[in-house]
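Lecture notes, unit on protein representations.

Consider one protein chain, 82 amino acids long.
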Amino acid sequence: MINSEYIKRFLEENSNVVCFTFEYRGKPCGIDPWSDGKQHYNVWYGEEDFVADSWEAVLKVKLFDSKTLPEIIDKIENYETI
């Protein structure tokens, strides 16, 4: 079963991966890690996006129809890495 810890670990262990993408409620979503000396994450849901300065911020942002990633994790579909 996929969970937020799995996503975090996957992104950390596969730094050559561009991003982790998925669908929620029929909208494209993703988490794209990047670094400028410090780790950041671009998180998006459809046309909305958020730049998080830590993994904790990724988990706390209510970007997905006013819900957090942990709240929707069991409802995401078609996840993959690109």
